[in-house]
């Protein structure tokens, strides 16, 4: 009696099983093969694979790529020769065009550091 009163007076959430019972199984009935592939529309195994994967994922090489073909493909990835190497006008050592020579840069850095330590350099007033 108490169960009847509580079910009538108190609101209840519908259970998922009651919602399933509203639909008839015959409207959603479909045949399933033992492997789990659907055959409702007569689609074969190949059609199901195309639905699962895009075509580019199914592409595979036909034969093994030989060592010479791999070497030819990667031949253009090597180091290229530099054509912009010139002589430094100050010291005569090799340097890249439009870049400062490493030897001259080292000499300039040493000169700047000695001037800065002496307090008479370009950056003496900046501190």
From TrEMBL:
<protein>
    <recommendedName>
        <fullName>Large ribosomal subunit protein bL32m</fullName>
    </recommendedName>
</protein>
<dbReference type="GO" id="GO:0003735">
    <property type="term" value="F:structural constituent of ribosome"/>
</dbReference>
<dbReference type="InterPro" id="IPR051991">
    <property type="entry name" value="Mitoribosomal_protein_bL32"/>
</dbReference>
<dbReference type="GO" id="GO:0005762">
    <property type="term" value="C:mitochondrial large ribosomal subunit"/>
</dbReference>
<dbReference type="Pfam" id="PF01783">
    <property type="entry name" value="Ribosomal_L32p"/>
</dbReference>
<keyword id="KW-0809">Transit peptide</keyword>
<dbReference type="InterPro" id="IPR002677">
    <property type="entry name" value="Ribosomal_bL32"/>
</dbReference>
<comment type="similarity">
    <text>Belongs to the bacterial ribosomal protein bL32 family.</text>
</comment>
<dbReference type="GO" id="GO:0006412">
    <property type="term" value="P:translation"/>
</dbReference>
<keyword id="KW-0496">Mitochondrion</keyword>
<keyword id="KW-0689">Ribosomal protein</keyword>
<dbReference type="InterPro" id="IPR011332">
    <property type="entry name" value="Ribosomal_zn-bd"/>
</dbReference>
<keyword id="KW-0687">Ribonucleoprotein</keyword>
